[in-house]
Structures are given as C-alpha cells and as structure tokens.
Write a structure and sequence with these properties.
Layout lengths: L3 E10 L6 H19 L3 E9 L3 H10 L3 H18 L6 E4 L3 H16 L3 E11 L4 E3 L17 E10 L5 H10 L4 E2 L1 H10 L7 E2 L1 E3 L7 E3 L2 E6 L1 H5 L2 H7 L8 H4 L3 E6 L3 H14 L7 E5 L2 E3 L2 E2 L10 H8 L1 H11 L6 E2 L2 H30 L11 H22 L3 H22 L1 H4 L6 H22 L4 H10 L12 H5 L22 H15 L32 H5 L3 E11 L7 E6 L6 E5 L15 E5 L5 E3 L2 E3 L2 E2 L1 E3 L6 E3 L14
Parallel strand pairs: 1-2, 1-12, 2-3, 7-13, 12-13, 14-16
Antiparallel strand pairs: 4-5, 4-6, 6-8, 9-11, 10-11, 14-15, 17-18, 17-20, 18-19, 20-23, 21-22, 24-25
Helix pairs in contact: 2-3, 4-8, 11-12, 12-13, 13-15, 13-17, 14-15, 14-17, 15-17, 17-18
The structure holds ligand ME8.
Ligand ME8 binds next to strand 1, helix 1 and strand 12.
C-alpha cells in the first residue's frame, strides 16, 4: 500500500552560509523523497531557515547591517543554493515569515492558558552556539563540547515551560515505540538522559536584552526564544502552506524528522513535550545521523573548516558528492570528508566502476550492432548475475527504509564487480571478431548493459540527473515516479534490444588524483597562515606559482582633481548570484549605504566560481560609473580587480583591514 511521508530537515541558522554538512541532511531528505516516489509513495519535503536569536543578532551587528537585511540575505543564499543543485523541496520556511510568527504566538498562548508556562528567575550557563542552557554534566572542562566555548552565566527573570511535567509520558512513548528514534543508540542516549528529573525550559528573553525574536502574546516585554520558536516550523509550514489551505492533518502525523546528533535533545525531548502540552500528535520518526568530520573535528561554521556546496559542484559535480555521502557514511555514525577520499571513491566506484562498465559494453554494442544488443542465450554465470540483481532489488526498499544506504551501495558494488568479472572472462571485444560467437557476444553485452540499467534506477534517488541521462541513453524512458511499479522497472531482462544507441558519452570522467594532490598541497602551503578561517575550502583558493611581471606603460598623467572625480566606495556584498546563460559574469548585490544595494555584474566567474563566497566581504566599487544596461539587467557600478602575478587569474581588490562600509576611498 502506498504510504504518505512528510520529511523535514532542520531549519538552518542563517549566521553563515550553507556547507556540505547542511547539504547532507538536505540531500538525504531529497533522496528519500525521490526513493519513495519511485516506490509509489507520496511525500512532502520541508526545509528552511532559523532566523531569530542572539547569535544571528550578533552576526548582523558584526556585518553592520540590520538583522532583517542580514537574514534576508543569508536565507536567500540557502534557498538559491538548494535551487541551483536541484533540491526538490515542496516548501521553504523562514521563521521570520508572518505565517510562522502567527502560529508560534497561537501555540504559546494555548500552552500559557493551559498553565504550562510560568514566570520565574533563573541562573544558568548559556551557550550562544547551541542557543540553549547547558547542564554541568554536558560541559567538558567547563566548555561546550560542540562549540568549544565557555558558556555565559545568565541570571534573569523569564518565562518557563513546564517540561518536567511531561517526562513520564515521554519515556512511556519512547518505550512503546522502539523505532521512534533511530538508530537505537540515540534512543538509548535519550532514555538515559531522561533517567534524571527533567528541568523546566526557559523559553523567553527580555526585550531589554534581545529584540530579535517573536513577541510573547501574553507579555510584550519579552520575545520567545530560539527553540520554542524554531521547532514549531515543522507544523506552521503545514498550517499555512504556499498552496493555501491548512494541510497539517494530512501530513503532520506522518512526519519523519531528519537531523544530526547535535540537535537530538531538542528534537527528542523539548519538542515532544511541547507537542504534548499543545495537545498535538508526536512525529512518526526521528532519524539521527552523525557528523561529517574535517580532520578530527565536526565540519562547522564556527570552526571554519567547511566546504561550500556550490564550490564543490563547480569542480566535481554535486551528484558525485551525494553518491560519496551515502557510500561513505554509515547512518548514525560519523564519517570523514576530504577531497582526496572523495576522488578516490569517485574514481573507484563511478569512473572505473559504473562508468567503465557502461562505456566498455556500450562501445562494443555500438560498433557491432549499432543498437542495444539482443538477449542472446543465457549462461550459468549470466543467470547468477540476474539472480544477484534480483536479490539486490528485492532488498533495496528495506535497505533504504532502514537507512542502510551504505549497505545498499555495497551490494550494488558487488553486483558491478561480478558483472565486470564476467565481462573480463568472456572478452566480448574478442568475440566481436568471431562471426560465429555473435550470440555469445550479444549475451555478455546485454548482461552488462542490463546491470547498468538496473543500477541507474536504484541510484536515481541519489544521483537523479546523472542517472536520468544514463537511462535515457539506454532507451529506458519510463518515469520513476511510481506510475510503473518498481518491481516491474527493475525486473531483469527489460533492456530494449534493437533500440539504436550512439557512442556512449563519458558519464563519469576520471578525476586526475595526482593533479589535485599537487593543487591541494600547494593550497595548504598557501593558506597555512591565512587568517581567513574559510581557507580550508581548498578548491576555492586555487593559486598559481609566481612568474616575472611585465608592466604595461602608464596611461597619460592626470591631476588630483581628475582623480577626485572617480567616486570609489567601500561596499559590502549582501548577496552573490549566478547569472543563467553567462559564462563569465556573476551578479553581486553591493551595499554602499544607500536605500537599496547596488546590482553589479562582474566578470569574475571563471576565477571565483562561487558567487556566494563574496557575501559579507567588502569590495571597492566605482560608484559613479554610468550605469550600464546589460543583457541580464542594469549594472550599477564596477568592482576593482587586477591580475595575479602570473596573469592567469583575476584577483578582486580588498583592504588590509576593516573599513567602514559606504565610506569613500582615497
Ligand atoms: O541547529 N555533519 O541549525 P544549524 C552533519 N537552527 N550534519 C551537519 C553538519 C556536519 N558537520 N553540520 C551541520 C540548528 N549539519 C537549528 C535547528 S531545527 C528546528 C533548528 C546539519 O544551522 C545537520 O542536519 O546549526 C545538523 O543537525 C544541522 O545541520 C544543524 O544546523
């Protein structure tokens, strides 16, 4: 029977731009939605941004813009990033949207009326990174283990949610639903946390200290605080969806939360008790994954060791990273990301594995038949391969539903290896020379190509566009949306023999590991003492060796008055965008202190492929250059840049120190 499932990702803080840790959970939701669609189920997928609180207010202050301008910008970067890499979400919620604010106030009032919110004075240790109080037992050497900072002692009169009142009910729920929190280790962690009495939860901040939040409906001197605000997004988005009418009854009870272990407590303790207080059903599942590590530590914006999705996409293709994610991370445990490991896995599994199987079989089929080969007469080995494929497809649903992606991929790799062995034994390239063995040759090629067809269907939720291209090449055009039953799609023996095929394109070209190793070594040396903490986004920082300079003759002399006519301003980039259809241009929105940021088209794309990398940076803008109407829109200024010493790259001009945004430059 078809199921309905509502997948949610965390809504991400907008104090910094997305990195591949955020991408993992988002790609997970996207993959699960596509997988369930393939199975004929119906899904809804929500993601979004978490925009209130102390840490966002601090980041906005640092960037010298209003919190609203700041969150508009970074939330836009999240949304644009997901769009550019084809994340298929049904809704994107922002906690600053009126639909969300309304709902939070409604629930706060309801829980207050029921007597589960009270006013009291409290002293506690607050971690701004986690946006919550930490208990002494959570601290390691007096520091937050995730952010490695010493929490602030806060003493304040505030509103509290009677979380403790729901402790027994929560324990009973977890015990009655063994797979409510998955994998089991996180369920056990929550149960052990619940062995000690649960403290009530502080849910407010006085406006005298923080205004950047949602006002309490029963006390306008206070705003509600991060978690009571943020968690409700999962329902507020359903109550007022983009489609219009309330769809919460249909989708809320079938909700699967996807989160990493950093927010387990908030999702498995705060959230269900809030729902109990509001008389709402609990979500169906909480699926918890581990961390992507960079070296020894969690990849995180506060530690600065991040890789940006769009930068990765520009160099290696985002779908290849999605494959790496699912192959490398055993769901629930941590996994390491390095470019080197990615390249190794890509070359082994995709370039030499799937890609090579496809190109070697399709190449001979194209030359010998000009078409997909006939089935030929089955052999014992080919039947074994067909049986192995049948076992794989039969176990696929359980593997994905049990979040055993890495296992499913390992089984796929075994099938691929068995098929490769068969091809090596049968040597179809030699059979092609013998007219009497045409049937044998057809049979081997058919088996190889049929395995590719089946694997491309199984991998389509993970690499949707790449697999769609492979399937189209193999003449498999049936939709992967449940219209054709899954079992029918993947039954062995459906390759359309006789359909013409072209020479196979290179679906997975090999990555030159040595070339990249040199590049990484060079960049590590160049960035060893760089103060920019994003320096570890290595591929964004490609530099080239120094070569002697040749100077062009100076232009005719000008006076200081001539120079004074050029109005140079310090501008802060508030957002950076791709320009569809333009190879060289990026679109930057630059704030120089006017009512609206300026739109500037800059020809820096080939040197700086990720336009979002400029957000928050200060550049020099020629502010009184006559605006230029371009094919893509009006360009209202020009940013200063020069050539690198080797003349190979463009380097955007910046300052040796912080400057005041909007000020003139002399
Ligand atoms: O916690 N490895 O937002 P956030 C794996 N706003 N996943 C990672 C990761 C890593 N290194 N880094 C980030 C918040 N993530 C709150 C959530 S929900 C009502 C409010 C992913 O921006 C992972 O999904 O800190 C993690 O749970 C989430 O980003 C934290 O995002």
């Amino acid at each position: 029977m078809a199921q309905s499932i509502y997948f949610t990702t965390p809504i991400y803080y907008v104090n910094a731009e997305p990195h591949i840790g955020h991408l993992y959970t988002t790609a997970l939701a996207d993959t699960l939605k596509r997988f369930h669609r393939l199975m004929g189920d119906e899904c809804r997928f929500l993601t979004g941004t978490d925009e209130h609180g102390e840490k966002i207010a601090q980041s906005a202050a640092q960037a010298q813009v209003s919190p609203q301008a700041f969150v508009d910008n970074i939330s836009g970067v999240f949304r644009d990033t997901w769009q550019q890499i084809h994340i298929d979400c049904d809704d994107f919620i922002r906690t600053t949207e009126p639909r969300h604010v309304r709902y939070v106030q409604r629930i706060l009032q309801q829980v207050h009326d029921a007597g589960d919110i009270y006013f009291d004075e409290y002293t506690g240790k607050y971690c701004v990174g986690c946006e919550r109080y930490l208990t002494d037992s959570e601290l390691v050497d007096g520091r937050c283990p995730d952010h490695q900072t010493v929490p602030n002692e806060v003493k304040e009169a505030n509103y509290f949610f009677r979380m403790g009142r729901f402790q027994e009910r929560l324990i009973a729920h977890i015990e009655a639903h063994p797979d409510w929190i998955r994998p089991a280790r996180y369920r056990n962690e929550v149960l052990s946390f619940l062995r000690v009495p649960l403290e009530d939860l502080c849910i407010s901040r006085p406006k005298s200290r923080l205004t950047w939040g949602i006002e309490l409906p029963f006390d306008d001197a206070y705003v509600t605080y991060v978690w009571f605000d943020a968690l409700l997004n999962y329902i507020s988005a359903l109550v007022s969806p983009p489609e219009g009418r309330d769809i919460s009854e249909r989708w809320w009870p079938v909700c699967h939360h996807l989160i990493a272990k950093d927010i387990l407590k908030t999702h498995a303790v705060y959230w269900p008790t809030m729902l109990m207080a509001a008389n709402l059903p609990l979500p169906a599942h909480i699926d918890v994954h581990g961390y992507w590590l960079s070296g020894e530590s969690k990849m995180s914006k506060s530690l600065g060791n991040v890789v940006r999705p769009l930068t990765f996409d520009a160099h290696f293709g985002i779908e290849n990273l999605r494959y790496f994610f699912f192959r490398e991370m055993k769901f629930g445990t941590d996994a390491g990301f390095t470019y080197e490991l990615f390249i190794e896995r890509y070359n082994a599994d995709l370039a030499n594995g799937l890609g090579n199987l496809l190109s070697r079989t399709a190449g001979i089929a194209h030359r010998s038949f000009g078409a997909l080969p006939p089935k030929g007469t089955a052999t014992e080995t080919s039947e074994n391969i067909a049986d192995q494929a049948a076992a794989l497809t039969a176990g696929y649903r359980d593997a994905f539903e049990g979040r055993a992606f890495h296992q499913a991929i390992e089984d796929m790799r075994h099938l691929l290896a068995a098929t490769d062995r068969y091809i090596n034994e049968m040597k179809p390239w030699a059979l092609a020379k013998d007219p009497e063995r045409r049937d044998d040759m057809a049979q081997v090629l058919y088996t190889g190509l049929e395995v590719v067809r089946i694997l491309a269907i199984l991998l389509a939720p993970i690499m949707p566009r790449k697999c769609a291209d492979i399937l189209a090449y193999l003449g498999e055009t049936r939709p992967l949306d449940g219209a054709v039953p899954f079992a029918e799609l993947v039954a062995f023996g459906q390759l359309s023999s006789g359909a013409p095929i072209d020479k196979a394109p290179q679906f997975f070209p090999r990555i030159d590991a040595q070339k990249w190793a040199q590049e990484f070594a060079q960049q590590t040396a160049d960035t060893a003492d760089a103060s920019d903490t994003s320096a570890q986004d290595k591929s964004a920082l490609a530099t080239a060796p120094e070569v002697p300079r040749v100077m062009a003759p100076p232009k005719p002399e000008i006076t200081i008055d001539d120079f004074a006519k050029v109005d140079l301003r310090v501008g802060m980039v508030v957002s950076g965008h791709e320009v569809p259809g333009a190879d060289k241009l990026v679109r930057l929105m630059v704030d120089i202190g006017e009512a609206q940021p300026r739109q500037v088209f800059a020809g820096i794309k080939s040197h700086y492929p990720d336009p979002a990398q400029w957000v928050g940076k200060r550049l020099i803008l020629v502010a009184n250059l006559k605006p230029r109407q371009m094919k893509f829109g009006l360009s209202e200024g020009m940013i200063l840049a020069g050539s690198s010493v080797d003349k190979q790259r463009l380097v955007v001009a910046s300052f040796d120190g912080e400057l005041c945004g909007g000020d003139g430059v002399r």
